[in-house]
């Protein structure tokens, strides 16, 4: 059987980019069961309430929902179990330092297959206040209006 190549996104957490200011991103592998991988290949997962923690020098992903595999038997997995993330020791130590010193959070941004292996894009993020979110929306709307006006001006319309 040929080895799988490429990058295929399973699920992304768009709300995380709205609720958090992203400081740094990391790519981590995951320890999964067979039925979890089969369910992910069907594109079934949810990062809505997911977050990562560092406990005893290991990084854990909590509240990630991977529904049970439909053709699974009694060997099926628990949908919201805690899953271990695979990072280098230096990355884990750097994360511990940044989380403790400045009150940052570890938030999963997306899950994807990379060359047949499941990866998670983790973000070191700082929570936004409601006025920061409003400012971002206003800035995005202003940019959209400017590009529309520029496009109309280039086409010769007012």
For the terminal residues, how far apart are their CA atoms? 60 Å
Poorly predicted regions are none
DSSP, total strands? 7
Q: In percent, how much strand structure appears in the residues?
A: 25-35%
What does the largest sheet look like?
Answer: 7 strands, antiparallel
Give the neighbour order of strands across the main sheet: 1-6-7-2-5-4-3
Describe this structure in words.
This protein is α+β, with helices and mostly antiparallel strands. It is 34% helix and 33% strand. The chain contains four helices and seven strands, in the order βαβαβββαββα. Strands 1-6-7-2-5-4-3 form a seven-stranded antiparallel β-sheet. A hairpin with a 2-residue loop joins strand 3 and strand 4 (58-62). The chain is globular, with a radius of gyration of 20 Å.
Short note summarizing the structure:
The chain is α+β, with helices and mostly antiparallel strands and 158 residues long. The protein has helices at residues 14-19, 34-41, 89-102, 130-155; strands at 7-12, 20-30, 51-55, 58-62, 83-86, 105-114, 117-127.
What topology does this entry show?
Layout: E1 7-12, H1 14-19, E2 20-30, H2 34-41, E3 51-55, E4 58-62, E5 83-86, H3 89-102, E6 105-114, E7 117-127, H4 130-155
Antiparallel strand pairs: 1-6, 2-5, 2-7, 3-4, 4-5, 6-7
């Amino acid at each position: 059987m040929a080895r799988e190549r490429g990058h295929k996104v399973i699920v992304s957490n768009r709300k995380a980019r709205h609720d958090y200011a992203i400081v740094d991103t990391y790519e981590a592998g995951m320890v999964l069961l067979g039925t979890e991988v089969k369910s992910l290949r069907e594109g079934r997962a949810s990062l809505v309430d997911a977050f990562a923690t560092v406990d005893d020098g290991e990084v854990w992903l909590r509240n990630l929902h991977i529904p049970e595999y439909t053709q699974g038997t009694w060997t099926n997995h628990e949908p919201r179990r805690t899953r271990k993330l695979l990072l280098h020791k230096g990355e884990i130590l750097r994360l511990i330092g940044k989380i403790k010193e400045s009150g940052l959070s570890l938030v999963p941004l997306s899950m994807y297959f990379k060359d047949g292996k499941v990866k998670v894009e983790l973000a070191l993020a700082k929570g936004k206040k409601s006025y920061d979110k409003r400012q971002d929306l206003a800035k995005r709307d202003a940019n959209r209006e400017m590009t529309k006006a520029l496009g109309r001006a280039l086409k010769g319309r007012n």
